[in-house]
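Ticket reopened. Same input as before:
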Amino acid sequence: MSKPRVATTSLAGCFGCHMSLLDIDERILQLIELVDFDRSPIDDIKHISQRCAIGLIEGGCCNEENVHVLHEFRENCDVLISFGDCATMGGIPAMRNNIPLEECINEAYRDGVTVYNPKGIVPQDPEIPLLLDKVYPAHEVVKIDYSLPGCPPSADTLWAALTALLTDKPVELPYELLKYD
Amino acid sequence: MSDAIKITIDGKEIEAQLGQTILEAADEAGIYIPRLCSHPELKPIGSCRVCTVVCDGRPQAACVKPVMDGMVIENETPELLQHRRNIIDMMFVEGNHFCMFCEKSGNCELQALAYRFGITAPQYPFQFPEKEVDASHPDILLDHNRCIMCARCVRASQELDGKNVFQSIGRGFDRKIGVNGEKALGDTDMAVADRAADICPVGCIIKKRVGFEVPVGERLYDKAPIGSDIEGVRS
Amino acid sequence: MSELVPTIREICKKYGNDRARLMDMVREVQESIGHVPREAFGLIASEAKTHRVEVESVVSFYSFLSDKKKGEVVIRLCDDIIDRFQGADAIGDALIKELGIGFGETTADGTITLEKTACIGMSDQAPAMMANDTVVTNLAPEKIPGLVKQLRENPEPQALVTEMGDGNNADPLVQSMVCNNICEAGPVILSDYRKDGGLRKALTQTPEEVIEDIKTSQLRGRGGAGFLTGLKWELTRQAPGPDKFVLCNADEGEPGTFKDRVLLTERVDLVLEGMTVAAYAIGAETGIIYLRGEYSYLRAFLEDKMNQRRVAGLLGNNILGNEGFNFDVRIQMGAGAYVCGEETSLISSCEGTRGDPTDRTPFPVVKGYMVSPTAVNNVESYCCAARIMDKGPGWFSSIGTERSAGTKLLSVCGDCARPGIYEVPFGTKLREVLRLAGAEDVACVCVGGPSGQMVGPAQFELGISYEELSTGGSVMVFSNQRDILEVADAFMEFFVDESCGYCVPCRVGNVLLKNRLERVRKGEGSPADLDYLQRLGESVKFTSRCGLGQTSPNPVLSTLKNFRPVYNALVKDNGHGLNKSFNIMKAVEDASAIAGRRSEIFHA
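Engineering reply: fixed in the latest deploy. New output:
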């Protein structure tokens, strides 16, 4: 019997949640006994190769590419988990959500105090994904089955949730593991 | 005692005193009714509605409803827990609560309630409203992003400090806490020693230069849920 | 600012520098200089012996008060759903075109400000607007250019009134184009009656006997809540306190309700008579009529009527020679806040503060206005009380149903041939009301306004009564040409605008309900969104602090119940878990415009 597959991605996040995943330390050996990793920044597989049991989403959607990736995950994963505050509520990137997009771009590329950009050029290459009007938590774009808040969620939190899912137990975090910071 | 009466909460008969609110009577009996705007030193105003109970068949805010002999109260029914959870979710989405960098995290009553209710993500969409940060005062920061309009500061300033630094202004979703000064908090007679400066249940009123004093893991609500102290009284 | 100091001082002095009259002070400052400047907050506060932030708190609460300079004339276009269906949007477009400004803006010359406002109580002659205190009804787009031209030349809105309405609308102190539209006069209120017959009879009895009569008559509050009036008076009488108060709730803000407008035009004496009876019964010396800001065109007329009664010995000291029975009435003007129709909010507003409701333990009958026992009754209830005293409780309770005695004034509007006032006995079937009003092809009737119920033909056989279809008067008719969820959406918009924001469920829940309803209306909703609406609506209803929040989800909840197929036709499952409510093309629109290119990934 083949092992269930897990895919992970970092959208508008800082990879801190993935760092936290690595913080499970030696338990990673147990984890790879239980699952195979598909698309993930950890193994650098670029696209989901086959149906996955679990998709882990770090970060919300700040640009069109994030949406594209999130759609790929939703379409190919049985269970989708928002892990971390950014996926759950937008996080630090969402602090721009009450500032008009143009103002954000000008601040970043033209007017910011540390910016040196005499020609006032804003990067426009078509390779650069278009920004969304605001940063969307993952569940506003696709259906999300579980959320694990935290910035980042602790390794113990991730371990508890993953092992519960993989052993068909309900995902119920003990009090000490549910944290928003 | 002549004013002693009996009330029933979730089928358990407890003793209460005339003049007490349902919340006070429950606290004494070691029964925790979740609350946010209520504070033992302040007059209750029933604005957050988290302490809603069913009293003789009707919804009532436990913090303002006086006890009467023979009252029958429901507290922990699935319906009430759901209503309370919904209200907590509403408070999270109406403001900008970025717990990850908030000085109050770990000691915040709103966050603690959400933990107690096991909320991993609010079920409502975040509104991301535009709010002000008032840093004009030398010792106190007023961050409206985190305000839940509980008006504890309004009451503390009036009732405990003998001042009138805060008052609600505006209405509806745009309602906010105003300050008694030409422009900002720095124009008022607020002092860092005021009770109003440390009575905020969330991170809206924060004393400057003292953030993150307590290490993670040792903060008020890191290990035990809010309300544990009250439930600990239970015999 | 310094030049305003004497004016402001004068105004505050006029109200005795009394903090409890703060509402009147800021209202008059606004009237006299066009707004309440922020720089004046401190001065008003020191004059009224309160705090600056308290003044800001009041000014920022009421929609007719403003700290921003406005034009000499403020046009407030009535924006309720009835007016919209009668063409208010086209009027709005015409005003925008003629004035060259949008809503919320003022013309460059400072003459005219354009705004929208909630129902102004003219739904039977919609579309309508207010220009300052002057009401302009039956608007049509082709009338707008002339109207604007006239206001530009002469910023005196009263000059817009060329033809007077019927009855007292033509009184020199009213001079309004408003029409009464009384379509059905019932036996209790709108038929001819013996003036002050009730008061004279009451004064031959003891106060306790008067209360007993009102109790026997089974009169229940006409504002909609239906509390027994006699019991309310009795509780007020029995409550300890040297001063007691009689308040008349004329803050008729429920959209689609305009019966109090007509009573205050044609039955002022009956209202005042009823208040005087109440004062006698409970032992009060002071009465207040809380008049909604939208009806300020009636104020001078009401003041005059009160004066006439003082001269005739019907108000003032020793009323009708009754030694020691002293009672007088003042008018408290509102300033655009629906929530002030809630009795505790109304009391807050009369005390000169923002109109936040207060907790109803203690109830106003024990601790109301100025922490004294207070009876707050609806305009219509006072009319009924006066008539009960004259004709006897048995006569009154023989009309209507067993649990709903007497008649009810209905203000019928919307899709019907004869919008107007109908006084019908309680128990009259809704179908009969619709027949009287000439309403055909009716798909939905909103009974009781946005806070009431939206019902379909299956409920038309129910009677107008507290036990079946309860209403404070509003009956809005919608034909099968109308989008029922557009109506519900407009009602939710109303509640979002009018919530005082004191408690969480009403302040936040209504915004969330409105947003989710919009999503469903746009066809972006899934069946799960209907459960979301139901559960959220129930929480707002269950946990809100006052009557506003406890009824605000009704447009959603009653349509989910009575018009479920309309919702079902709009929602679809989210395919593959991708939310239809997230629109990627819309989300990249701004960035696309800034970058000057289309999305490389997503195409429309």
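The first helix of chain A runs from residue 16 to 22. Chain A has a mean pLDDT of 95. Please confirm and we'll close it.
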